[in-house]
Write a structure and sequence with these properties.
Chains A, B: It comes from Nocardioides psychrotolerans. Chains A, B: Keywords: DNA-binding, Transcription, Transcription regulation. Chains A, B: GO terms for molecular function: DNA-binding transcription factor activity; transcription cis-regulatory region binding. Chains A, B: InterPro entries: DesT_TetR_C (IPR054129), Homeodomain-like_sf (IPR009057), HTH-type_TetR-like_transc_reg (IPR050109), HTH_TetR (IPR001647), Tet_transcr_reg_TetR-rel_C_sf (IPR036271). The structure is a homodimer of 201-residue chains. The first copy, chain A, is mainly α and 201 residues long. Chain A folds into two domains: 58 residues, Arc Repressor Mutant, subunit A (Orthogonal Bundle); 118 residues, no CATH class. Chain A is 73% helix and 0% strand. Chain A contains ten helices and no strands. In chain A, helix 9 packs antiparallel against helix 10. In chain A, 34% of the residues are buried. Chains A and B meet through helix 7, helix 9 and helix 10 of A and helix 7, helix 9 and helix 10 of B.
Amino acid sequence: MGCVTATTRVRLSPEERRSQLLDLGVRLLATRSLDELSIDVLAEEAGISRGLLYHYFGNKHVFHEAVVRRAADDLIAQTAPPASGEPLERLLTSVTAYVDYVVTNYEGYLSLVKGAAGGNDTLREIYDEARSALTDRVFREDAQGTIITDTPAARLVVRGWAAMTEELVITWRADPSGVSREELLEIIAASLPALVGVIPG
Amino acid sequence: MGCVTATTRVRLSPEERRSQLLDLGVRLLATRSLDELSIDVLAEEAGISRGLLYHYFGNKHVFHEAVVRRAADDLIAQTAPPASGEPLERLLTSVTAYVDYVVTNYEGYLSLVKGAAGGNDTLREIYDEARSALTDRVFREDAQGTIITDTPAARLVVRGWAAMTEELVITWRADPSGVSREELLEIIAASLPALVGVIPG
């Protein structure tokens, strides 16, 4: 796993090659921070030359941003709610996928959070896009307002809920003692309806 | 305001002078990011020489960390709940002070959050201390468990609530449209008991 073999390589278009290398980069990010993900590491894991990687990505900066964008796209895709079902049930499926994504891709996710908060504008933009995709989804998937009615206060509360969810998952992943995965999921899932209850008006 | 006059200067001990300069630094941080708070700016506002400031703080790095630590101490002190009253009422007073602190010291607070998340270990440590002081307080001020019983899941939820509160205040400060300060306070205050209700077991 993780190697681009000579056999597959010749059959792929440059676009497909680039995409495959980004997937590898995202996989490597699961256990590495962005700082630890160098062109050298990718070249070694992919079994191709550094020169070829520079051909695809220009420099380390561009490479990192492309990998993070791919990671954010993966996160958005993997947390897409099922097409049918009750709004709350669909959101629970989405939340569970989010928790599993962060737990599995912990180091890379932390890198995105840190990079976004630390003042890298591109990472900030990617992070905000991913965050919006997740929070906007609450309103889109619940267009009838079964769970929540779309108001400025509700938008604010859902943003707060998303920040809380991220904090809960990251904290739990760092030290899960005393709280099971099921309890964590129950807390996150039940907290949205609970918070809706405190919206004024 | 903000100027250390020659008259007061001669009467102060070096420790008091340093403390006064830190207070000025914190005040300047209300409308500036940490990056914008230079030794030059402080020297000009304090009306003293850069050389003297270097004497007190060594270098810009040490100066910044000292200012941020002072800001965190101020935050903790200003958000101390009143000595008497019902636990929930005391916590509401504390939360209101926190919201007002962040709104008033917005730029400096953002700097602390960014610096802590962005990988500056000292800022991270100061931020974590301040965050713990605020979250531990919930359990200390409510030792009888009127609002919340001290369990690993409850500690996790209170951490999540603190992250949510920070997100709510920062987001609202950046764009308050459609949500009044009173509504914001109501949301933050009511959300803790609401979240306690979702703790399993």
